[in-house]
Amino acid sequence: MGVLLHLSDPHFGTEAPEAVDALLALAARERPDVVVWSGDITQRARPAQFEAARRFHAALRAPHVLAIPGNHDIPLFNVAARALRPYAGFRKAFGSTDDPHLSLPGLMVAGVNTTRAWRHKHGEVSSAQITRAACRVRQAAADQLKVIVVHQPVWVACAQDRINLLRGHAAALAAWADAGVDVVLSGHIHLPSVHPLSLAASDGSPRTVWNVQAGTAVSHRVRGGIGQSIHLIRYQAGPHGRRIIERWDLPPGQRAFERVGRHAL
Q1: Is the pLDDT of residue 78 over 80?
Q2: How far is CA 48 from CA 12, 51, 53, 89, 251, in A?
Q3: 260 and 249 Cβ atoms separated by less than 8 Å
Q4: d(C-alpha 176, C-alpha 132), whole Å
Q5: Cys bridge to 168: 17, 36, 68, 125, which one at CB 3.0-4.6 A?
Q6: Average pLDDT for residues 221-229, to the nearest whole number?
Q7: CA distances (Å), origin 225, targets 6, 220, 260
């Protein structure tokens, strides 16, 4: 089976060394084909932080990568850079921010850049981005796992996090469910969860879209008493290919990630 490693919110510049070591050990054992970064790769979009993230990614040794920026990947205090070149550091380290995508046997991933240089924290998705991602899902092969990646969440478990929901999330979910998306990956709130969303296609037929919300991968900025957290998605090509989402946490005080949840699609 192929393996997708989903990382979010590592906030390089605030990383915990023991979490970095533990995640590298997990990746060496699982050998992911694809690494997906769902934003907030750095703490303050500084060159040294992007360089640390780039070195970490190289150490993962994954043949494919898809990364989108988070709000922390845009300079906050450098007003000129924020206005004129908000994504310069991200592009140097990880490439284009123009809604990247990749297609592999058994897997299609479409990234959506939900950050805006004029916003401090909140994200939004435009109608053009919604349509573009839906088209990529429709163009995917029937036996591919269809994944869309955003930074801010499209669903939250806690009422206090509703303020962090992606602006335009309802329209996006409706369009993407109608197109046939299987999984939406996100980050931003540092609170991991895997939750099936019951939606309906335009013809009224039921659709299940899995909302996969990552915690922070390696930062000490953990939340809710949960340590650092990532996901592994195992996928298999073919008409009867299996798809499995696993949540892995690093319990406080421990040195190895542990699998704490497993969901078969």
Answers
A1: no
A2: 9, 5, 9, 10, 28
A3: yes
A4: 10
A5: 125
A6: 93
A7: 21, 11, 14
Strand order in the sheet with 258-264: 64-68, 34-38, 2-7, 228-235, 243-250, 258-264
- Between the two ends of the chain, the Cα-to-Cα distance in Å is 14
In angstroms, the CA 23 to CA 29 distance is: 10
Q: At what angle do helices 17-30 and 47-60 cross, to 10 degrees?
A: 30
Give the pLDDT confidence of 152-178 residue by residue, as tens digits. 999 999 999 999 999 999 999 999 999
Going by CATH, does the domain composed of 2-264 fall within 3.40.640.10?
no
Q: What is the pLDDT of residue 199?
A: 94
Q: What is the DSSP letter of 138?
A: H
Burial of 84: CB neighbours in 10 Å, binned 0-12, 13-18, 19+: exposed
Cα-to-chain-centroid distance, residue 203 = 29
Q: What is the pLDDT of residues 98-156, one digit of tens each?
A: 999 999 999 999 999 999 988 778 999 999 999 999 999 999 999 999 999 999 999 99
CB distance 216 to 9 below 8 Å: yes
Which of 235, 188, 236 has the alpha carbon at shortest distance from 212?
188
DSSP letter assigned to residue 204: S
